[in-house]
Amino acid sequence: MKRQTKALAIATALAASLAAVLAAAALARPSHTSGTTIQVRGGEFFFKLSATSAPHGTITFKFKNAGHVAHAFKIAGKQTPTIEPGKTTTLVVKLTRPGKYPFKCTVPGHAQAGMRGVFKVT
To answer: Which of 87, 88, 90, 111 could lock onto 116 through a cystine, CB 3.0 to 4.6 A?
Structure first.
């Protein structure tokens, strides 16, 4: 009986320790639900955003290249890599001040051909 009680106490202590570790890990992990996500579709030679404004804070731009040539997306000094047709990439930007933020494709000539716009942060 003493052996079973000791084993139960050890199992309970291990379970409590594991629960504490998992709770701490959940708190340390960044939340994917905070901030705003904007879908960006780009092609020859346009960008279409799911919204043209968002509240200030962390904004995730999910960029899909719907065109036939490589494109990229740049806003607030940050940019995606140049991605091939059909590919998708994500750009997370902290826009903490309200205002207007120009965006563009960084492939030479693409912004001049129409791949540019302005995103408003409130």
So the answer is: 111
Token code pair at residue 38: 């904007």
CA distance 121 to 13: 49
Nearest to residue 82, comparing CAs of 72, 74, 67? 72
What is the distance between the alpha carbons of residues 32 and 68, in angstroms, rounded to a whole number? 31
Q: Would you state the structure tokens that stand for residue 111, as one six-digit string?
A: 């912004």
- What pLDDT digit, counting tens, does each position of 57-85 carry? 999 999 999 999 999 999 999 999 999 99
CATH of 36-121, one of 3.40.50.300, 3.30.450.40, 2.40.50.140, 2.60.40.420: 2.60.40.420
The structure's pTM equals 0.72
